[in-house]
Amino acid sequence: MKTTIKDDQTRAGERRRGSQDAIAKMVTERTEMLALYCRLAGLDPFSQKQHREPAQQLLQEFCQVLVDYIAAGHFSLYERVVNGTERRRDVATLAERLYPRIADTTQAALDFNDKYDLGENGIIPPSFEPDLSRLGEELAVRIELEDQLIARIV
């Protein structure tokens, strides 16, 4: 089957739209996660009994959105790089350089989720505040690295 330049351009445009859609989904997940992070950071889950249940519910919601955000980035942006299917050499080179540190932030987020996805009846341990702070630092690094990659992709 003979392909034309127009066919190649059409496929390239479709790939670009796919990348842009993946980026938009990831940024939407990221925005939701950051909003929940800020709400969670503003709570004192240990102060009074009446605040414990809302804090647990918010923590549950945050953990779910955190995992969704991590998955959106991993399965949409980084998968092509890890699999070697990214065609733009400059994007692939940058992603290869950034990916190890992004993978570290992924592990930090998954570790946080494993520790604090307690279910509705779980008790939030005293280590929560410092762990949330460390997670925030890791997320800030991740966002900075993602933004570098996004700038190169679009």
UniProtKB/TrEMBL annotation:
The keyword Cell inner membrane does not apply. The lineage of its organism: Bacteria, Pseudomonadati, Pseudomonadota, Gammaproteobacteria, Acidiferrobacterales. It comes from Sulfurifustis variabilis. Gene3D superfamilies: Regulator of RNA polymerase sigma(70) subunit, domain 4 (1.20.120.1370). This is Anti-RNA polymerase sigma 70 factor. One of its GO terms (biological process) is regulation of DNA-templated transcription. Residues 1-19 have a biased composition (Basic and acidic residues). The keyword Repressor does not apply. Keywords: Transcription, Transcription regulation. Residues 1-20 are annotated as: Disordered. Belongs to the Rsd/AlgQ family.
